[in-house]
Amino acid sequence: MAFKRTYQYIITAFVAMLVLGCIEEIEFETETFESALVIEATITNEMGVQEIVLSRTFRFEDDGPVPETGATVRILSNGVSIGFSEVEPGVYLSDSPFAAQSNIDYQLKITTS
């Protein structure tokens, strides 16, 4: 019976340590950083306005990604150029609806400020 009571005390103490234990927050700081362009795009085979989202990488200590504004975005295919316009910071929509087709090469051209 004494063994059972000791076992219960040990389990209770262990659970209390897990629940009430201190957690020390670690402050991360970026030592080296290289800004890179992040491109989020899915061009579908459904006829419609296509969307491309542009942003920049960010440091751990920053609040989040910074939208890439003022860029020139276009898709080239078989001599045809499809332009994109910025509708909100970092979000670019195709100027005209289109659908990607199989067995055709597409190139995404982006010029940033």
Main sheet record: 7 strands, antiparallel
| Overall radius of gyration | 27 Å
Helical region count?
1
General shape: elongated
First CA to last CA: what distance? 77 Å
Could you state the order of secondary-structure elements as H and E?
Answer: HEEEEEEE
Which residues form runs of ≥5 with pLDDT under 50?
none
| Sheet/helix structural class | alpha+beta
Helices and strands in order:
Elements: H1 2-20, E1 37-41, E2 51-56, E3 66-67, E4 72-77, E5 80-88, E6 91-94, E7 107-111
Antiparallel strand pairs: 1-2, 2-3, 2-6, 4-5, 4-7, 5-6
Explain what this protein looks like in three dimensions.
- By secondary structure, the protein is α+β, with helices and mostly antiparallel strands.
- It is 17% helix and 33% strand.
- The chain is built from one helix and seven strands.
- The protein has one helix at 2-20; strands at 37-41, 51-56, 66-67, 72-77, 80-88, 91-94, 107-111.
- Strands 1, 2, 3, 4, 5, 6 and 7 form a seven-stranded antiparallel β-sheet that branches.
- The longest helix is centred in the N-terminal third of the chain and has 19 residues, at 2-20.
- The protein is elongated and about 85 Å long.
- The chain starts with a helix and ends with a strand.
Short description:
The chain has 113 residues and is α+β, with helices and mostly antiparallel strands.
